[in-house]
Amino acid sequence: MSGGVDSTTVALLLLKEGYEVSGITGIMHDGMQEAAKNASEACKVIGIEHHSLDLREEFNEKVINYFENSYKKGLTPNPCTYCNRLIKWGSLADYAFEKLNTDFYATGHYARILNENGSFRLYRGEDPKKDQSYMLFALTQKQLSRTLFPLGTMDKIKVKEIARENKLSAADSKESQDVCFINPPETTQSYLLSRFGEKEGEIIDYNTEKVLGTHKGAFNFTTGQRKGIGVAASEPLYVISIDPDENKIYVGFKELLSSQEFDVENVNWQQEEHGEKQEFIAMAKIRYNSGAQEAVIIKTGENSVHVKLKEPKFAITPGQAAVFYNMNNEYVLCGGWIK
Q: Which CATH number fits the domain 198-252, given the four candidates 2.40.160, 2.30.30, 3.90.70, 3.10.20?
C-alpha cells in the first residue's frame, strides 16, 4: 500500500468480498516515510492491520544502482519494471507470503489475470488509458498464480468514486510520479549531474561527423531526445546514438530514427510455450506510452530474440522494455530489454 487511492481502494474491495486483509508498505527511500504513514492511517480507517518493511538498502542496491548505471552505459532505464520484479514481487511479496503467511498478494495495478487451462495470462486492464500490463511483463507464472488485481476491470473515475463513497481520504491523492526517488523540482538530468558531476563531451553530426557543440555529460541524453540538446539547426535535431565510452552524442534529423529491427535480451517467457518456439508473430510494444504493432519474433538464444516490425518505428530506445502480446493484443506473451 502506497497510501494512494488505488491500493487503498483495493484493500477496501477485498475486505468487502470477504477476504482477511492486511496492508503492507515497502519503504524504498527516505521520501516514502510520508506514504507509509498515509497507508497506516488508511488501514486504521478501513479496519485492517498494517505492516511496514524497510527496503531502502535493497532498493538502492537493486533499483537505484541499475538506474544510474544504465545512464552511464548510454541506456534509458525503466526503473518501475525493475522495482516490480525485484522489490514489489521480490522482497515485499516474499515477506507477505513467508512472514505473514498470506495466500494472495494484491496491488492497485490496472491489469487482469485469468487462469486458462492452468496457464495464468496477464491481460490488459480494461481502461486503455491506465493499462499497466507492460510494466508487469517480468512476472512469472508462479507470481501470477498468487496475485490479485481488483482494479483491472475498472477505470480511474470508478475507483475514485468508490473511495469517495467510502470516505477514504486517499480519494484525492496525487498520481504517483514516474521516478519515485526523484522529487520535483529536481529532474532526472539534475539528479544525474549531482551524482556524476559535469563531464564535457562533444555533440557530433551523425552524417558528417562534424562537431556541433559540447554537452555536460552523455548520461544526460536518451535516444530520440529532441529538447535540451543545445545546438541549433535548420530543423529540429534529435539524439541518434550515444557513445558512453567516448562521452559523445550523435545528433541528426528525425528520419534517422526510424527503424524496423532490434534485439531484445533477458526475455521473460510469461507464456512459457512461446519460449519453445523458434519464430512467432506477435504485437510488439516498445515503450509504455506507445501502441503495439505487428512483428516477427525470432529466437536467437535461450532468453534473447530478434524483432522485425511490420512497419518502421520511431526511436527504438536501448534500455527500454519491449513487451509482446498475442495477435489480438489482449495478453502478454513475453518481454525483455531492448539491446
A: 2.30.30
Q: Consecutive sets of 10 residues in the chain, 339 residues long: mean pLDDT of each? A: 92 96 95 89 94 96 96 94 95 96 97 95 95 97 97 94 88 75 90 95 96 95 93 93 96 95 97 93 95 97 97 95 97 97
Choose, from 43, 80, 83, 334, the residue flagged as catalytic: 83
pLDDT for residue 319: 96
Q: Count CB atoms within 10 A of the CB of residue 300.
A: 14
Contact between residue 69 and residue 99 where contact means Cβ atoms under 8 Å apart: no
What pLDDT was estimated at residue 57? Answer: 96
43 among known catalytic residues: no
Assigned fold of 5-172: Rossmann fold (3.40.50)
Asked if residue 217 lies in contact with residue 192, where contact means CB atoms within 8 angstroms, the answer is yes
Is-catalytic flag, 180? yes
175 residue type, one letter? E
Please provide the CATH number assigned to the domain covering 257-338: 2.40.30.10
150: cis peptide before it, omega within 30°? no
Instruction: Give residue 177's pLDDT.
Output: 67
Give the angle 150-143-134 at the CA atoms, nearest 5°. 65
CA dihedral of 238, 240, 243, 248, whole degrees rounded to 10: -40
Residue 294 to residues 42, 89, 281, 299, 326, Cα–Cα distance (Å): 43, 30, 7, 16, 10
Q: Could you tell me the residue ranges of all domains in the chain?
A: 5-172, 198-252, 257-338
Contact residues for 245 (Cβ-Cβ < 8 A; gap 6+) = none
